[in-house]
Amino acid sequence: MSQHPDFTIPADYLPRDGRLGSGPSLIRGEALDSLATSGRGVLGTSHRQAPVKNLVGSIRSRLAEFYHLPGGFEVMLGVGGATSFWDAAVVSLIERKSQHVVCGEFSGKFAAATHAAPHLEVPSIIEVAPGQGGLPSTDPSVDAYCLIHNETSTGVANELGRPEGPGITLIDGTSAAGAMPIDLAATDIYYFSPQKALGSEGGLWLAICSPAGIERIEATTRTDRWIPASLSLKTALDNSRKNQTYNTPAISTLWFLDQQLGWMLERGGLTWATQRSLTSSGTLYNWAETHELITPFVAPEFRSPTVVTLDIDDRVNADDVVAVCRSNGILDIGGYRKLGRNQLRIACFPGIEPTDIELTTKALDYVIERLAGI
Q1: pTM reported for the whole predicted model
Q2: Which residue, 49, 147, 226, 313, could crosslink 293 as a Cys pair with Cβ 3.0–4.6 Å?
Q3: What is the extent of the structural domain holding 89?
Q4: pLDDT tens digits, residue range 225-245?
Q5: What's the pLDDT score for residue 1?
Q6: What Cα–Cα distance (Å) separates residue 156 from each residue in 169, 285, 302, 349?
Q7: Domain contains 290
Q8: Does one domain contain both 113 and 229?
Q9: Secondary structure class of 172 (helix, strand, coil)
């Protein structure tokens, strides 16, 4: 087992809350406190009864307000997280063939799921190098275009575009939803998990559906394709309209999500949340641009406001930086391991205080200078 250096970072360099991971993310202390007080009457009760159904209804209503949903758009949700949504999309949304813009681990996982499906044609893949973004390309053989708004593994924010033609567009917004603006005219299904900018835990997926997306769900259900009930988006849609999920959800996840949406709406909604993440990420990018040993991994035109990836000069081992930070309470800032770079990855979601990001740069200066001997 490798040994990492360890030393104490001065207290006045440490963030107030060091939970800076890119997911699961920081859950605000106020939300935790509210679960222990107001939430006590909801935990341990049936998700088919009014208290939990009212909670789901509040989430759907607040998301509609947060995103200013156009007429005919609906919010649906289900148990299982974005990974389960990929499986649901494979059986409930894609008719014959999908196209995927792959720019990292998570966009690649959805492509792999469709490639493995025996009832679908081999998907079209547009693959770009990690750290770069890409756009879909019109293909008359494709009926579902699959993009990612923000690639969590690399810190790339993608430009979104809807190809011409009849295909629907599916956009993974897991590390973007709640902190990055989106033109809903560019998407038919905008889906995400709530354990990042939306300040909750995993195990749940949510999707904003256009009328065309809803029609695709309905049309696929009318075919003779076998669709398991737990992966049926028609079942999820029908239950969502009743403010419930098909199977039992984690009520604490619903509670934290509702609390986070209310907190952001009180402060200005998506516009406020977007600016807060831009402030925090800008602090990190500006700091890295002038640092002798740190370089932003992503080019300026693709840089994410919610997940910042920073390369470290080979004179300093990123694992050592992460280990020292962890021992001092700054948590989960390691790069995505499958990317294989000497890198840090720091979340800048709205629930993270921008002042804590500023303090983190001071802590990193302290650690890197000592590890590099400069």
Answers
A1: 0.96
A2: 313
A3: 30-265
A4: 999 999 999 999 999 999 999
A5: 43
A6: 19, 13, 5, 15
A7: yes
A8: yes
A9: strand
